[in-house]
Amino acid sequence: MDIQDIVTLIHAVDETDVTNFELEEEAFRLKIDKRDRKGKAVAMVSPVASMPVMEQGVPAAADSGAGKKEEKEEPGVKVVTSPMVGTFYRAPGPDADEYVRNGEHIEAGQTLCIIEAMKLMNEIESDYAGEVVGILVEDGEMVEYGQPLFKIKVN
């Protein structure tokens, strides 16, 4: 599949009521998602090897950190990363309180969030006791394996 095929698929999804489209081939996985994007389709290419992330059919920077923020290592701060691909939720339900908030003290084993994958709700627990000093993902956002979710200042 070349870039023109991907652009054609993006336009096809844009012109329909389809909100989510995934295609997996040997070399890559293509995901086109219109949710929370003001109706415009956005394609995410997940490589088997290193491939650029694409939005609206335009390649992102080809470096290995494309699309990711540079995270400075902070002494005493641990980063909790996503153990899977899925949808990030800060609370157990739409009307429920968030599991944790910035500035809150947490214990090891405490639930931080839920990641929904294949209609299964997976509770993500902290490996660390300490203070939540950063929530790095928005509620309802898609997350990738290994993506930073929380910063915890350990005790």
What can you tell me about this protein's structure?
This protein has 155 residues and is mostly beta strands. It has one helix and 13 strands, in the order H-E-E-E-E-E-E-E-E-E-E-E-E-E. The strands form four sheets. It has a four-stranded antiparallel beta sheet, with no helix packed on it. Strands 10-9-7-12 form a four-stranded antiparallel beta sheet, with no helix packed on it. The longest helix has 12 residues, at 3-14. The chain is elongated, with a radius of gyration of 17 Å.
Biggest sheet features: 4 strands, antiparallel
Number of strands: 13
Structural class: mainly beta
Query: What general outline do the C-alpha atoms trace?
Result: elongated
Q: Note the total helix count.
A: 1
Q: What is the residue-mean pLDDT, rounded to a whole number?
A: 77
In percent, how helical is the residue content?
Answer: under 10%
